[in-house]
Design a protein that fits this description.
- This protein has two domains: 4-60 and 376-403, Urease, subunit C, domain 1 (Roll); 62-364, Metal-dependent hydrolases (TIM Barrel, Alpha-Beta Barrel).
- Helices cover 31% and strands 19% of the residues.
- It is built from twelve helices and 17 strands.
- α10 packs across α11.
Amino acid sequence: MTARLLISDATVVDGTGGPPRPGESVLVEGNRIAAVGPGVTAPEGAPVERIDAAGQTLMPGLIDCHCHISFGEARTQEEQDLYTGVESRTLRSAFNLGKVLRAGVTGFSAPGGSYYIGVALRDAVAAGMLRGPRLTTAGRFITTSNGIADFYPTSVGVPEGSIGTVANTIDEMRAEVRVQIKNGVDFIKIGDTATGEWTAFRRDEIAAITEMAHQLGRSVTIHARGSEAVDFAVSAGVDWIMHGDRMADDVIERLAASGIPLCPTLTLIANLYEWGHLVGVPQHKKDAYQRLLFDCAAPALTKAREAGVAFMAGSDSGFSVTPYGEWHARELELLMTYAGLSSLEAIRAATANGARALGLDQEVGTVQAGRIADLLLVDGDPVADIGVLQDRDRLTVIADGEVQSFDDLDPALRWPYDRNQVIAAGEITQDLVNR
């Protein structure tokens, strides 16, 4: 007999941006929402699990469109790229899935990472071998010698375990797209420059990557902080854009007209700016993140919101400053603070709009009959206080129609990759020894 779940007397925030609807009930049958509305009940005589949700808010599960599940909470780039083999990286990544789910994230998109770990995790979750959010994944970033993922001197090259791969000609770019799609990625990730102060790709190069991916039935996203990179991406017809911190006014208008959504991903730079001193981030770097956030991102994103750009929500989880399961919901608060979104708009960015990155626009992201039952029951009112979504103890996670228990999960347990092989933190000189 089909399993049933009845959530009664909740305030429903359906993810579409519409106002809260108090006093409604939701009936789940199997992994689908069967009915939503006031007075909804379970069929008579049918076995049913019941949740009295009076005083609570029922909303779609969060969708984090920027979660690097294979980054391993790295503290350094070398740790992220060089240390720990693919086997250990895969096990660590699988271990971290539960933390992401416990934070209320029922779906996420992994825009790049080590090897094809994301592909393996996606398939294992879909097959029921691992418990975690449903996910889509890219492979390694495709970048150039001037882009975000070519970190090391030419003499070192780009290690096999790097998060990126370098392609400096259109033929090389098309070949990499073909290989990644052969290996099962859901979408292609283009990596422009780290901070957007110049552009690593030509317009025709981004167009060529996008055309090749679309021909083979896959989506494309791009790390684009600079205005020119965003403009090139819009003209190429990429499927969604990440960051957009330095967009000029005319580019914002073209982005709005295109209908391409933007995933600002503010959590990483906000955490670095606000709390970096707690974990040894140098002051000059904190200052740089402050300038990027206040002088570039906030005014550009506010204008983008006013122009009608659709927003998605992504946290850039996977670094040591954005550990798994900790800050996914903070992105909603930051979209309100720095881009001027309302709480309902921020919730939509993290639910209905995010479904696009999962390739499930008509399946998840809203509380509607017929949709997959990826839901979040919140002990509080996220419309009045968006911060309540960051309190994991006040969240009941329903994934694929099942109420999740996390009694066996220790969210404080960390399993980092091998750290750098540091011999010492300074030089042993005669002056030091004899002072």
